[in-house]
Design brief:
This protein has about 80 residues and is mostly helical. It has three helices and no strands. α1 packs antiparallel against α2. The chain is elongated and about 60 Å long. It starts with 6 loop residues before the first helix and ends with a helix.
């Protein structure tokens, strides 16, 4: 698992993650435990983890899909125009 996001991007993810986590935890202290606030806690924890590890699974998935699409386009060109 190699880092696939920059340091600046990681700092932004950590900042946003802690901000949303603080907001969600303040909502949890005032109200009953509902799903939307728990979802915010889970998503913010994921953002904080992505920032610390500098690895985003969605970025890795998108890059892998782009590589697969490039390979499939090359295969189609070989089938259409064999040389």
């Amino acid at each position: 698992m190699k880092p696939n996001i920059s340091i600046f991007n990681a700092l932004i993810r950590i900042t946003i993650g802690f901000t949303i986590l603080a907001y969600a935890s303040s909502k949890l202290t005032r109200r009953n435990c509902n799903f939307s606030v728990l979802f915010l806690v889970i998503m913010s924890a994921m953002r904080i983890g992505e920032g610390i590890l500098r690895f985003c699974p969605m970025t890795a998935l998108c890059k892998r899909c782009m590589v697969m699409m490039d390979k499939s386009e090359d295969d189609i060109e070989e089938i259409v125009q064999p040389s």
